[in-house]
Amino acid sequence: MAIEKARPKIVKLDMNPMVDMAFLLVTFFMLSTSFRTDDPTEVILPTSNAEIQMPEVSVMAIYVNPSGQVFFGIDGKFSKKALIEHIARRYELELSDYQIENFSLLSGFGVPISELSNLLKDRENLKFYPMAGIPTDSLSNELAEWVIYARVVNPTIRVAIKADKDTEYQHVKKVIKTLLDNKILRFNLLTEKMPSTKQP
User: What is the dihedral of CA 132, 136, 141, 143, to 10 degrees?
Assistant: First the structure.
């Protein structure tokens, strides 16, 4: 009489919970990650030993490139919309909802206020529009207007100056004078952390 051998049991794994968990993690990281936006002008920061880190939210950034051109940007889509609406009212600009939406997509800009409608009329060319910088001279200091209304929109906003290491001091001095004239006495001059020289 033949003896029947016991067949090994096939263990089935239910992969559904694992797949669900993977999609939940992917969704969480997509929603919680904030991507770094491109700066409106190329700036190579000077190096220093400073340990203080700038916060990642609620920041007004003023960029000064090696040519002395000044660019401006704030974070937060709703803050940008409120800011451009204030500037439009102040200068009686006729901006459409489409142009206001385009402004909220900019990480920063550097054009006189008179050129804003041209800058914002075409979403496809926002990155390629030739920007000559925001006027900061004594006759027409438009940077002061942007700074004032950015603080109206967000009173707790922090100010950061990102000046290129090759920028002449006189250009940075104009920006600092604009801040001081508007009673902004606390601001950060951003630098890159100097690489460590310690040997292991």
Answer: 80
Q: What is the dihedral of CA 122, 88, 138, 45, to 10 degrees?
A: -50
Q: How many angstroms from the chain centroid is the CA of residue 82?
A: 16
How many residues comprise the chain? 200
The residues facing 64 across adjacent strands are: 70, 163
Q: Write out the H or E segment, with its range, that includes residue 89.
A: helix 77-91
Q: What is the mean pLDDT of residues 46-57?
A: 76
SS3 assignment for 2-43? CCCCCCCCCCCCCCHHHHHHHHHHHHHHHHHCCCCCCCCCCC
**pLDDT for res 1:** 57
Model pLDDT for residues 174-193, shown as the tens digit of each residue: 999 999 999 999 998 888 87
Mean pLDDT value across the chain: 87
pTM, full prediction = 0.77
Instruction: For residues 129 and 56, give the distance between their C-alpha atoms in angstroms, rounded to a whole number.
Output: 27
Classify the phi-psi angles of 48: left when phi > 0, otherwise alpha if psi is within -120 to 50, otherwise beta: beta
Q: How far is CA 91 from CA 63, 67, 84, 163, 180, in A?
A: 23, 27, 10, 28, 23
